[in-house]
Amino acid sequence: MTTTIATLAAGALFGAGAGLLLIANGRIAGISGIAAGAFSPQRGDFAWRALFLLGLLLGGRVALHLVPAAIVPAPPRPLAWLVVAGLCIGFGARLANGCTSGHGVCGVGRLSLRSLVATAIFTAAGAFTRVVWLRFGGAS
Amino acid sequence: MSHKDNLFVAAVSGFVLALALALGQLTRPAIIIGWVDVFGDWKPHMMVFFVGASGAYHLFARIHAWKRAQGAADACAVKPMRIDARLLIGATIFGVGWGIAGACPGPALTTLGAGAPWAAVFVGAMAVGLRLADAPRLRGPAKSAESRGPLGKAARPWPIRSEG
User: Fold this and answer.
1) Which terminus of chain B has fewer Cβ atoms in its 10 Å neighbourhood, N or C?
2) Quick one: which H or E segment has residue B78?
3) Dihedral of the CA atoms A83, A84, A88, A94 (nearest 10)?
4) Global ipTM
5) Do B91 and A118 make contact, defined as CB atoms within 8 angstroms?
């Protein structure tokens, strides 16, 4: 129960951080979208993206000391699989115009049907992949 | 661009998001794996985080919509988008990535900031994936929705494009 409340509170903090960006800058806190724009910079549209990403990295650095248990130092999968997963995540998020933060939190928070559909498909495709992964002897 | 982004707010927002992900343990791939393990050892942890996050965000989105109704010109106007093949295919490929590694852009960048080398491998591959999907051939008409301009009157309640 305490974990549930703590998780809810952490989620609310995430929503507040994303909401701040919406209210102050009118931007959707979609992490993959912001990263994509930073990796393909355009004039007048780079600085805020770079600083947002720097904030994320710095937050990770602080989290290492604040909540060390949340940081996983060992690769969760062999590196080749991490590359495959990274390609899927980047390519898929860009094609779908959003990832977990953009669709899952901001989109669902705005009651966007498009984002609800995207989040449901993320989960369904993930569940299917998980079954296949375990069937073929992948590590849990 | 008539729109001016507050850079300090952008940095603070990123910082808060990373802290929230770590505090909620979303940085642990096992949490995301637990969410997609629907037919196995399913864990509702991520859903709880989502409820808190999208619930809180909803309040901010309402304030934002209200500000715009008052004529505030601080936001970007973006056309609403349809549920199309790009969304369905992209979301499916994204889900496959979830199922394989349990990693996500936000948690991976947070973990990279904490100095875990594996996150650099993942983020590097993710950057390549993002760029590949931006190839002109794949852009399609949907891309035009990215043109941003000053905000006129909000014709619809939520005319902002979701990007993430």
Assistant:
1) N
2) none
3) 30
4) 0.96
5) yes
Residues of B within 8 A of A84 (CB-CB) are 97, 100, 125
Considering only CB atoms, A89 lies closest to which of B37, B89, B129, namely B129
Report yes or no: A28 and B164 within 8 Å, Cβ to Cβ.
yes
Cα angle: A6, vertex A12, A13; to 5 degrees: 90
Task: Give ∠ CA B83-A94-A100 in degrees, rounded to 5.
Answer: 80
Using the Cβ of B43 and the Cβ atoms of chain A, whether some distance falls under 8 Å is answered with no
Residues in chain B closer than 8 A to A30 (CB atoms): 162-164
Q: Which two tokens stand for residue B135?
A: 């190839």
Confidence of residue B139 (pLDDT cuts 50, 70, 90): low
Q: Please report, for residues A31, B6, B18, the alpha-carbon distance to residue B107 in angstroms, rounded to integers and kept in the order given.
A: 10, 24, 7
- In the DSSP assignment, the letter for residue B42 is -
Measuring CA to CA, which residue among A106, A17, A39, A124 is closest to residue B21? A17
Q: What is the CA radius of gyration of chain B?
A: 18
**Contact residues for B58 (Cβ-Cβ < 8 A; gap 6+):** A15, A109, A110, A111
* Inter-chain CB proximity A30 and B75 less than 8 Å: no
**E strands along chain B, which residues?**
none
Enter the DSSP assignment of A76: S
pLDDT of residue A119: 96
At B97-132, the pLDDT tens digits run 999 999 999 999 999 999 999 999 999 999 999 999
